[in-house]
Write a structure and sequence with these properties.
Number of domains: 2
Strand content: 15-25%
Number of strands: 10
Oligomer: single chain
Structural class: alpha/beta
Radius of gyration: 19 Å
Number of helices: 10
CATH topology of the largest domain: Alpha/beta knot
CATH architecture of the largest domain: 3-Layer(aba) Sandwich
CATH superfamily of the largest domain: SPOUT methyltransferase, trefoil knot domain
Order of helices and strands: EHEHEHEHEHEHHEHEEHEH
Distance between the termini: 43 Å
Shape: elongated
Strand order of the largest sheet: 7-6-5-9-8-10
């Protein structure tokens, strides 16, 4: 089994709370003795996870250019969801359900931030294409602050086919597009729905756009033409949450 490296206080803490992930080892800095590290060590003991204590300088040598915050974990893979799992995931979703579909978000920082917003707003699961999209890397896990452990991420070979399968389950799909005349605030978000956010800069691909049930925009009254995809995702998801609260 190939180890997946998880680093950062939030990410490792969430990992330890995920009973479905096998954790081989945790490395902690001997210079950190604060409560947050102590809480992680207590969880590691409960789960009988091996802990290695090293000087911060040694950790930095092994993991250069990583903001590890004094803790790194080596774990097994996340559950590997694909398009065949979509009906079961939808059936297990809360009612009304909420799905986030990301069409070609290649920046791992943006993907991590989208997952963090998805977790905060109660998204049931996230769908991403296998090609031309960031996958769940250590950077994504770190930026997501643990959300990668709590939200199923479905990686599909054909995004349009996955969208059609979702629609067959009675889910309406709405895509974000700058030219849409309807804003997110005019959209009725109280039924089970999926929101599709496009790639950084290019937005939704043509086929993705054509297979949406409707499009929405975010009001832009300043001089910039668009928002970063993770910011736009947060704005859209929080409007859904507002309408349902």
């Amino acid at each position: 089994m190939t180890d997946h490296v998880i680093y950062g206080l939030h990410a490792v803490n969430a990992l330890l709370h995920n009973p479905h992930r096998k954790i081989r080892q945790i490395v902690v800095s001997q210079e950190r003795t604060d409560q947050r590290i102590q809480a992680i060590l207590a969880l590691a003991e409960q789960r009988q996870v091996a802990v290695e204590t090293l000087a911060t300088a040694k950790i930095n040598q092994r993991f250069p250019d990583v903001i590890h915050q004094g803790v790194i974990a080596f774990a097994g893979s996340l559950p590997d969801y694909n398009e065949n799992d979509l009906p079961a995931l939808l059936n297990a979703s809360k009612k009304p359900g909420l799905v986030l579909i990301l069409d070609g978000v290649t920046d791992p920082h943006n993907l991590g931030a989208c997952l963090r917003s998805a977790d905060a707003t109660g998204v049931d699961f996230v769908v991403i294409p296998k090609d031309k999209n960031a996958s769940i890397t250590p950077i994504v896990s770190k930026v997501a602050c643990g959300a990668a452990e709590s939200i199923p991420v479905v990686r599909v070979t054909n995004l349009v086919r996955a969208m059609e399968k979702i629609k067959q389950e009675g889910v309406w799909i709405y895509g974000a597009a700058g030219e849409a005349t309807q804003t997110i605030y005019q959209l009725d978000c109280k039924s089970t729905m999926a929101i599709v956010m496009g790639a950084e800069g290019d937005g939704l691909r043509r086929l993705t756009r054509e297979h949406c049930d409707g499009l929405f925009s975010l009001p832009m009254i300043g001089s910039v033409e668009s928002l970063n995809v993770s910011v736009a995702t947060g704005v859209a998801l929080y409007e859904v949450l507002r309408q349902r609260s």
